[in-house]
Amino acid sequence: MTTISVIGAGYVGLVTAACFAELGHRVNLLEIDHERLNALERGILPISEPNLPEVWQRNLAEGRIRVTGNYIEGLLNSRFAFIAVGTPSTKNGKPNLKWVRLAVKNIAEAASEPIIAVIKSTVPVGTGDLVARLLTCHGRNGHSFPVVSNPEFLREGLAVFDFMHPNKVLVGASDRNAADAVAELYKPLDAPIIICDNRTAEMSKYVSNVFLATRISFVNEVARLCDEYDVDIIQVAKIVGTDPRFGGGYMSAGLGWGGSCLPKDVKGFIHMAKVRKVNLPLVRAVKRINQQQPGVAVRKLRQLLGSLEGRTIGVLGLSFKPDSDDIREASSIFVIRLLEQQGCRIRAYDPAAMKAVAKILPQVTYCNDAYEVAKGSDALILATEWDEFKELDMTIIYSLMHQPIIIDGRNIYDPEKMSQIGFIYEGMGRHGIREKRAEPVLLSSAQKDMEPLLRNDLVISRESSYKSGS
């Protein structure tokens, strides 16, 4: 089997390394962050991802995975160097290629034999050309460095499954021999392999993520209209999704999209257009709608409770999606910050992400489970649809709360059942049972107080900067 080097021990790098080892290859994982490297050397994975620990430990024990911080060791005998480092957004949305440039420089200087550089990270169109120039510039031994763009299409929480069961493998290169060599690595997966040029592969990855973000923002905007006309967005989405022209994927209304990919890639796409003086009003609207979604949930609370000053609000879920500890651009964080601006006391629970959130929101009271969150709360906001929240005994939750109000930010509960228990239920695009719904406390003259919660200029923004992982 082939020896493969993977640079960057983030979500993409760890999954890529583990899964190539699972396919029988020898994998050298390179990581220059000392804290992360030390954890890996002690057998500790720095991320939470279902099925990854089992795959990682099995291949580590069988000697197919080696972790190092030394490029000379990490590239020894490797035919491929997969670049899977972070490309975080700068303030103006431009992807920061600092870690890509550093990885490329180190590859060129450390490689003792010809090697194919494979870009896994999501990068702007034209990065493949830049990498080729940098490899030539920094190369010391006269070796050739073909550059292949091989973007990942992994979903956090399902990343191992997605790697081993891809619906496609995209390989972009100007060197057909290099493209065929990379394609050969994926043949055991029995998936369609699409070969194109680097720029087409780079653009296709961006368009995929921007289109997914567009679908979610569209359904969230429709959900606002459903609220006004007492229509259930879930039923609407199911009906629309039966049309084969659309399909039902990414049609769930909620608090908005987050994570390491969609927010960064939408901003990066807009920046690419700006550089070439191309206006993208639709994509800008997609971003703006998503920024407003946390404010929609807080406004629902204001309509039900009136002033939020001094209220105790429980937040269920903190990670940006279930089965992950990733809090990058998580909607829960924006919701909590808006609530704190309104003078609320916050109690929260998440199965995996509390330690990470506590570093940036230390004033929140972190609880041992959802029942402890509910105790004495004036309202609950469901921010992440973890399975354990779907299995809660809601009659106990009802009995523990000071006021039985639930804002279901992911639409996981049945409004009729919630009403039967006694909850005042509000989903995103589904009010619940109309006659059971509380009348708004605020007078019409006070409605202006809530408008800032939907104004783009007051939406909290948090930029993430991570060295490892796309």
Secondary-structure blueprint of this entry?
Layout (H helix, E strand, L loop, with lengths): L2 E5 L3 H12 L3 E5 L3 H8 L10 H10 L3 E4 L2 H5 L4 E4 L14 H13 L5 E4 L7 H12 L8 E3 L9 H6 L4 E5 L2 H11 L6 E4 L1 H32 L3 H9 L20 H14 L5 H25 L6 E5 L14 H11 L3 E5 L4 H7 L4 E2 L3 H5 L4 E4 L4 H4 L3 H7 L4 E4 L6 H7 L2 E4 L43
Parallel strand pairs: 1-2, 1-4, 2-3, 4-5, 5-6, 7-8, 9-10, 9-12, 10-11, 12-13, 13-14
Antiparallel strand pairs: 6-7
How does this model look, in words?
The chain is α/β, with parallel strands linked by helices and 470 residues long. The chain folds into 2 domains: 3-197, Rossmann fold (3-Layer(aba) Sandwich), CATH 3.40.50.720; 262-458, Rossmann fold (3-Layer(aba) Sandwich). It is built from 18 helices and 14 strands. It has helices at residues 11-22, 34-41, 52-61, 71-75, 98-110, 127-138, 159-164, 176-186, 198-229, 233-241, 262-275, 281-305, 331-341, 354-360, 370-374, 387-390, 394-400, 415-421; strands at residues 3-7, 26-30, 65-68, 80-83, 116-119, 147-149, 169-173, 193-196, 312-316, 345-349, 365-366, 379-382, 405-408, 424-427. An 8-stranded mixed beta sheet has the order 3-2-1-4-5-6-7-8, with helices on both faces. Helix 5 (98-110) runs parallel beside helix 6 (127-138) and helix 9 (198-229) runs parallel beside helix 12 (281-305). The longest helix is centred in the middle third of the chain and has 32 residues, at 198-229. It starts with a strand and ends in a 43-residue tail after the last strand. The model is unreliable at 434-448 and 456-469 (pLDDT under 50).
